[in-house]
Design goal:
430 residues; 16% strand; binds ligand KE4; alpha/beta; globular; 14 helices
């Protein structure tokens, strides 16, 4: 339980508890998985954030991924400030969207054409609608523990055995919608094959987080993504990589570059907007031709392609592509994980970490999990205590054992040393 929230944070939390469900704009921020009250953050710069009581934290959430260059990156702030002075948005074509669109295609060649949205949820929802229209089938296959935003079709998990219909994960999702969503364990190719066989000719797409980040950080087993590609081709289904989290984070070209597997469609969010609201979906030209106004698949958005958001995304990606920047972040991430694990081992505490590019994961367990069931079997209560102890020592971790940690270019030696000192002391108080 974290006592880190100071008096002003607690006062704000009372105001927002009255205004918003759970006092938050997104559920995970309410600290329900770890207990205690969230600090209310008033400013952020580099690797550090400061709450309304003046407490400083090294931030490993990074706005849930976008802040890979660090908070208030000077290059991004300069560009966004200048763009704002030319207007915040016009709801028209703009040079800014063209510039970002071209850059995304250059970085991920599988994205021959794309459409911007304002969130990852919207990107995944639209990609699913497109897949259903292009293939002429209704069912979608996803994986337990993978999250693709909160569209109804994705808020469904396996019923008894994944070969039957899905069941709603949330009130308000109609059975009729859930039944078209098949869910199988991540990293289980046999279950994928069985589900596709049992629903032959009915599955429009297989959606996957190519590196899972919503049940902690779980990489694909060797051959898993290649197996999905083969299975989709054999069954006439589209392979959709949800790279909202992994895009530009596990590799500059996303997981599809890291593992050399080409999806039919890719969904983006987070880093593509550099902290402002941007999502996108894209892929093979002939698929994207189905999207209105070229084709009949309708999708629209008042703030899609907003020029200020486009500018933030463009300069974030350009900054990330500067020579050596991404590799340095990946090296920092790997070194941090190695040292976190070494300290736990010295203290005889079962704890494992994983690092993939600029994404990290930590579990209190003897070995790192390969799917949701194994992730759930880790010592979640110990993580809960650890989270509060780290917060009290000035380290701002995702408030759930089922989230990934996000390292950025601003996590310098001083920030990393602060995390490691807090880690060593927190383990002594677990
Ligand atoms: P948004 O609608 O939150 O922009 O994106 C949804 C989404 C889609 N796909 C993946 C792989 C995602 O990780 C997400 C959103 N991630 C969560 C964190 N695990 C966002 C944090 C939140 O929900 O507040």
């Amino acid at each position: 339980m974290s006592e880190a929230a100071g008096p002003r944070s607690r006062a704000f939390n009372r105001v927002t508890a009255d205004l918003f469900p759970g006092g938050v704009s997104s559920p995970v921020r309410a600290f329900k998985s770890v207990g205690g009250e969230p600090p209310v953050i008033r400013r952020a710069e580099g690797a550090w954030i400061v709450d309304v009581d003046g407490n400083r934290y090294v931030d490993l959430i990074g706005s849930w991924g976008p802040m890979i260059l660090g908070h208030a990156n000077p290059r991004v702030v300069r560009a966004v400030t200048a763009r704002v002075r030319r207007g915040l948005g016009t709801g028209t074509p703009s040079p800014d969207e063209a510039r970002l669109g071209r850059l995304v295609r250059e970085m991920l060649p599988s994205v021959e054409r794309l459409r911007f949205t304002v969130s990852g949820t919207e990107a995944c929802m639209s990609a699913l609608r497109l897949a259903r229209a292009a293939v002429g089938r209704d069912k979608v296959l996803k994986f337990e523990g993978c999250y693709h935003g909160h569209a109804d079709a994705f808020l469904s998990s396996a019923g008894s055995g994944a070969l039957t219909f899905g069941t709603p994960d949330s009130p308000g999702v109609p059975e009729a919608v859930a039944r078209d969503t098949l869910t199988v364990p991540f990293n289980d190719l046999a279950a994928v094959e069985a589900a596709l066989e049992a629903n032959a000719g009915q599955v429009a797409a297989v959606f996957v987080e190519p590196v899972a980040g919503n049940m902690g950080l779980i990489p694909p087993k060797p051959g898993f993504l290649e197996g999905l590609r083969t299975a989709c081709d054999a069954h006439g289904a589209l392979l959709v990589f949800d790279e909202v989290m992994t895009g530009f984070r596990v590799h500059l070209g996303g997981a599809q570059a890291l593992y050399d597997v080409r999806p039919d469609l890719t969904c983006f969010g987070k880093i593509i907007g550099g902290g402002l609201p941007v999502g996108a979906y894209g892929g093979r030209s002939e698929l994207m031709a189905h999207i209105a106004p070229e084709g009949g698949v309708y999708q629209a958005g008042t703030l899609a392609g907003n020029p200020v958001a486009m500018t933030a995304g463009y300069h974030t990606l350009k900054g990330l592509r500067e020579p050596g920047v991404f590799d340095a972040i990946a090296e920092t991430t790997a070194a941090l994980c190695t040292r976190l694990e070494a300290v736990a081992q010295e203290k005889g505490i079962p704890m494992v970490t994983r690092a993939i590019g600029a994404m990290a994961g930590l579990w209190f367990a003897e070995r790192a999990p390969d799917d949701l069931e194994e992730a759930k079997a880790c010592d979640l209560e110990r993580f809960r205590r650890y989270h509060g102890l780290m917060l009290e020592r000035g380290v701002h971790l995702p408030p759930s054992p089922f989230e990934a940690w996000f390292v950025g270019a601003a996590h310098d030696e001083a920030a990393i040393a602060h995390v490691l000192d807090a880690h060593a002391d927190a383990l002594d108080h677990l």
